[in-house]
């Protein structure tokens, strides 16, 4: 998949628009593969196993009210579903 420009996009966190403080967003996902090749095979065999995903972003420090630092510092630091 090719990279795309994010011009004109927005990022809302808990109902607050943090788009002006966000510089980069990376979203990835898919499933890991497990090799299950038997010794009588001429090529590799793989099976999809665990599905996983992640989202990361880069934010600039902005101490203003309802800006990135104010909103993101209140979020839990443990994994959330």
Secondary-structure element pattern, one letter each: EEEEH
The gross shape turns out to be: elongated
Provide a count of the helices.
1
Query: What percentage of residues falls in helices of 4 or more residues?
Result: under 10%
Q: What number is the mean pLDDT?
A: 82
The total of beta strands comes to 4
Biggest pleated-sheet summary: 2 strands, antiparallel
| Structural class based on helices, strands and sheet pairing | mainly beta
Low-confidence stretches: none
Strand order in the sheet with the most strands: 1-2
Distance separating the two termini: 26 Å
Radius of gyration: 19 Å
- Hey, roughly how much beta strand do the residues contain? 35-45%
Structure description:
- The structure is a single chain.
- A hairpin with a 2-residue loop joins β1 and β2 (16-17).
- The model has no long low-confidence stretch (mean pLDDT 82).
- The protein is elongated and about 65 Å long.
- 6% of the residues lie in helices and 40% in strands.
- The chain is mainly beta and 81 residues long.
- The two termini are 26 Å apart.
- A two-stranded antiparallel ribbon has the order 1-2.
- It has one helix and four strands; from the N terminus they run ββββα.
- It has one helix at 68-72; strands at residues 12-13, 16-17, 22-35, 46-59.
Helix-strand layout with pairing:
Blueprint (H helix, E strand, L loop, with lengths): L11 E2 L2 E2 L4 E14 L10 E14 L8 H5 L9
Antiparallel strand pairs: 1-2, 3-4
